[in-house]
Design a protein that fits this description.
The chain is mostly helical. Helix content is 69%, strand content 0%. It is elongated and about 90 Å long.
Length: 212
């Protein structure tokens, strides 16, 4: 026979089944689902910062290239080149008329032919690029001092040496105009033309020194 229950012993509670309302009395924080955004927040921010920085750099580079490039070739300094050529043509023509010295005549002729050819090439290049030069500007380099020096030299029988000295100075000034036009970037063909004429001027200076 089973033992009779002891009236003095505490009653044992049977195990309670799961209480469906237990979460009310024992709340627990729900576990977070893994998320690429949540789990890599700092990484995402770094990527966004990097992309933003890259976009800014691209914009700045584009602006800088636009500034450096400017609006295109700069043809303005070539007007000064034409002015120098016009004066050299004028002075060399004067030398051909006033001198009887063969060396002086050869130098004057060489300078005149070279400048006429160069002037035509510069005008052609400017016309091809739709650039117009006011003819009134071409005579601005005409020097009254040169005319006075040549007139005095002719009276003093020193015309040939004076003419040669003036031509050398004018050719040097012409080279400076060519250099300035080259640096101003008148386009690829324009730079090539300025460089070629600079070399031609150097040859004329060399020729003048051989007979001075």
């Amino acid at each position: 026979m089973p033992a009779a229950p002891n009236p003095g012993a505490p009653m044992q509670q049977p195990p309670n089944p799961a209480n469906p309302y237990d979460f009310i009395f024992n709340p627990q924080l729900p576990s977070k689902k893994p998320s690429l955004i949540a789990g890599g927040g700092s990484t995402t921010k770094r990527v966004l910062v990097a992309v933003t920085g890259l976009v800014i750099l691209v914009i700045l580079a584009a602006v800088l290239m636009s500034v450096l490039k400017g609006a295109g070739p700069n043809f303005a300094p070539m007007t000064v080149v034409l002015q120098e050529q016009t004066e050299l043509i004028r002075v060399s023509a004067a030398g051909q008329l006033a001198s009887n010295n063969q060396d002086t005549l050869e130098l004057a002729t060489a300078v005149q032919l070279s400048m006429i050819s160069a002037e035509q090439q510069v005008n052609t290049y400017l016309a091809q690029n739709k650039q117009k030069v006011n003819p009134a500007l071409l005579g601005l380099k005409q020097s009254k001092l040169t005319d006075t020096e040549l007139a005095n030299a002719q009276a003093n029988s020193t015309y040939d040496t004076t003419f040669t000295s003036i031509i050398q100075n004018d050719l040097a000034s012409y080279q400076e105009a060519l250099r300035a036009a080259y640096k101003a970037d008148p386009g690829v063909k324009g730079r090539k033309l300025m460089n070629t004429e600079f070399g031609n001027a150097a040859l004329l200076i060399q020729q003048s020194k051989q007979q001075s």
